[in-house]
Amino acid sequence: MAATRVMASAGNAVSAPQSLDLCFRNGRLLTQNKRLFFVHDFGKKLMLSVVHSFPCAHRSRRFTTAVRAESTNGSEPSAHYDFDLFTIGAGSGGVRASRFAANFGAKVAVCELPFATISSDSAGGVGGTCVLRGCVPKKLLVYASKFSHEFEESGGFGWSYEAEPKHDWSTLIANKNAELQRLVGIYKNILKNSGVMLLEGRGKIVDPHTVDVNGKLYSAKNILIAVGGRPFIPDIPGSEYAIDSDAALDLPSKPKKIAIVGGGYIAVEFAGIFNGLKSDVHVFIRQKKLLRGFDEEVRDFLGEQMSLRGIDIHSEETPQAIVKSSDGLLSVKTNKGTVDGFTHVMFATGRKPNTKNLGLEAAGVNLSKNGAIEVDEFSRTSVPSIWAVGDVTDRINLTPVALMEGGALAKTLFANEPTKPDHSAVPCAVFSQPPIGQVGLTEDQAVKEYGDIDIYTSNFRPLKATLSGLPDRVFMKLIVCAKTNKVIGLHMCGEESAEIVQGFAVAVKAGLTKADFDATIGIHPTAAEEFVTMRTPTRKIRSAPSEILMPKLLLVFDSSLCNEKLLHQRIYMYGQSTPGQLSDLSRCPSPDSYAYAVDEREVAKAAVKNVFLLFTFLHRCDFSLLCKQVKFDFGAKLDKVFELILKLYSVGLCNVSS
Amino acid sequence: MARKMLIDGELEKTNDAESHYDFDLFVIGAGSGGVRASRFSAQNGAKVAICELPFHPISSEVIGGVGGTHEEPGLDWCVIRGCVPKKILVYGASFGPELEDARNYGWDVNAKIDFNWKKLLQKKTDEINRLNGIYKRLLSGAGVKLFEGEGRVIGPNEVEVIQLDGTKISYSAKHILIATGSRAQRLPIPGQELGITSDEALSLEELPKHAVILGGGYIAVEFASIWRGMGTKVDLFYRKDLPLRGFDDEMREVVAKNLEGRGIKLHPGANLKELSKTEGGVKVLSDHGEEIVADVVLFATGRAPNSKRLNMEAVGVELDKAGAIKVNQYSQTNVPSIWAIGDVTNRMNLTPVALMEGTCFAVRYPEILALTSMFVSVVMSDYNTVFGGKPMAPDYSNIACAVFCIPPLSVVGLSEQEAVEKAKGDVLIFTSTFNPMKNTISGRQEKTMMKLVVDAETDKVLGASMCGPDAAEIMQGIAIALKCGATKAQFDSTVGIHPSAAEEFVTMRSVTRRVSAGTAKPRTNL
Questions:
Q1: φ, ψ for residue A12 (rounded to 5)?
Q2: What ipTM was assigned to the predicted interfaces of this complex?
């Protein structure tokens, strides 16, 4: 029984076997560049074998065939449908999926509402949130607002201004809108050039294969919903005076004094923008700290830095009503009192999926409680011909994730290449001032998932600040799994965090270890080099300090594969903390990290030999629980295991020589 | 017993046999490498001394400074005359172009704006004094004895320190480590004394109105950018067609274009012939017959190892033609008790590399001390056999570096030319040239360029380079990936951070070109 479980989980694990990293008492066993190493704590590295390839899991193969069976005709024109793919919504995800689908030879149409800077049921625009009401205009305003900080800094570097530079809001907004129009044009051209038909109007699902746009019906083999999300303002008295982020990006004049309600990334970004442009900024948050879901230390740090730059943060203060006074100014009534004199009140209280009035319920598409479309790993809804990507599915609401989901879907449907978007280790940035960049887990998540972790932090004054005299600082944090030495989380708050974290995201995604970070030479003098020069852990977190983690070696031989040929065996190694049952394997927190397989005949000999070497290294380990067996009988004693290994070893020799 | 020591990673403390030496280790030169090696060795239990010249921003045979290449008793070139002051000036210079960029973002910057060079210089000096103090405290905190004076080697185990008042004291040491760095060189042409080197350039009394820079290396382009950003008229002369020989040719073109775009006059394929004094300043005559009168002429024509006055030949330490101390992979010279790290060995002249060399030396230090003990050496050989390992040698592969011109260039791994030369199979080149988002509104006409060089067969990323804002910061993380042999597929599987420039590195989907090894040599010889 245990064996079945083992194999099942292992089957999953090896479907994406990037690496192995196992901690032993006096060293680590790990894979690097398709080689298996034992790295002694003392620093020595021993190559154990070359892994020629990783076995393919049966399960993923099955998925492959399943999906393929339904989409074999995907790339061929299907006579009875107008389109192979009809996409509703030409934002990041929709455009990506449509373009790629067309490139794969599908006949594709996409519909989108007419352009407007503020979205509604009847307005949108090609490019979507990211280009028109999100990342792009936001970043442009961030650029604009950062200059005031640079003027301040420049004083410390010998620059002086006869008059303090003044900012003209209308110039900025006009230039911003001109740039957005240019981008919409580019997006339209991209669609046109890839042969996607663009329809202007509101798309509505009539049935699983029919979409209605402005009263005209289009039939499609597949329908993709990529309508995104929209800001949400809670219903409180006076909420009609409040603006959302769409409006905040396109105000006719600059706020003198603005209340920003909410502590999420949109709130902190706008707080930075308006503060930089010299508005008086007040942020109201329900919680104690900004940015729920981010690493606690980063939350603390950002709060401090924002306050130092003059932003007034009202924590645990929730607006209950907005009142307009006779002078036209707004007052915000909260649970703690009233704050007066606002020219603007902005709500950054979250976004909701745009799933209303799309005909989804009638078509039988399941929605979650908050209105998001429920999809499987391939972005398929409960209706087999209807798919959804991007914010409307409320998975990870980021442009690059929508792009990934859209691209993966096009491959799945039209390239005979079923592809799941991979939502692990997705890096992200918050363009607050200073900005945040992060990838992987927060400390709390890491403790929950891995138990034992090492934390490395650095909080320093950057070179620029020592000259400018400003109180700017940089905070960096690495979270390392104590058992495997893998870097499982990386966080930064400070200038250029977003740019800096991208490269590290490649490293974290690739499953690299702290040792790999340490082996990298710094680029001097940069802030980023701090990430590769953190030598001592700030703290070590251990779930059970009294218990010494004693990894065991576990061998499992896959008999089903042995049937085929003499030496087709797999060796799974697993580190477990408590002596006892193999059923412990099912409690393995992340089988991917521990299971590893070798099934190449030519390396079998080496692999078995390596097991011997490991025995030598781990001489102090308790092997009485070491298990093996051809018939999934895990009761054998240690000496029997040796016997078996010897046998296999000799067979391996024979096999190789013959 | 041997086994236990092996596992615990501890060797027996050295016995008292060495007590007849004043020090276990004597380090000459308190720059990045020397400080690192002495601190770490002291932490490993060695009795360490270090000597350094008094601190002054401009180095000479008798002035150095803890922090290296600088003015007063200083420790380190990097801190005193190199990376740090340079970066400070680059920051200072970046504000000029920033002001231009601010205009289209709605900022009124038409009122009079002044730049005060003296103020920046003073702040820079203050900061460097502060860092110098930190370095000194680091040393004393680690228990390293610091001597002020010029050190020279007078025997395989003997160092002489010439103190400030001229008196000489000699010390015996079991091991001697040379970490004296390098010094800027002038071109031997008539009137060369009228020119300055980067040392003086970091501490000029007045900001030059018109500067002529000779050289195409990183120091030359950095100073060109610094002065230009502060409003100086700059003429840059270099012998090749493009600056920054050794870097990727395509990136060199981008740098040249950017320098020109920011108002620096380039004189490729040109050299200086003669300098002479005139009323208006220094008259520069180029080999193309051009005449320019400038107030400052900077020789950025390379650096030479500081090995002259160390008395190396007398004790039998071999130097190469350039005067660099020859060492093996463990930084040991041909005299077993004498070691050398950093720029004086002219391997890869970067601060973090000197740090690495210093660390490797220090980590090995217990071993070096232990070699005399029969017992321990048995352990060591056992160790080597068991692990097939070698003593820790510095690893020079995939070291990222940055040139802080404006905008900066940063690279890691191989250039396209190197990759094509070394590759067995085809090389895939991915490039992306784009208008940075900030420029869409600022109107600045300057493109950012990124490049990945990939081995077609293994999919391994062999090299990455970028020229554009924040390149140095962006490249650090990429460097880890390359160091660990990341594949293009691993880059592709990483989700971008939007909107950033760096995300371009993980979204390069189509190959720009495929270059077959041995064939189609791309443009070289520039």
A1: -65, -45
A2: 0.86
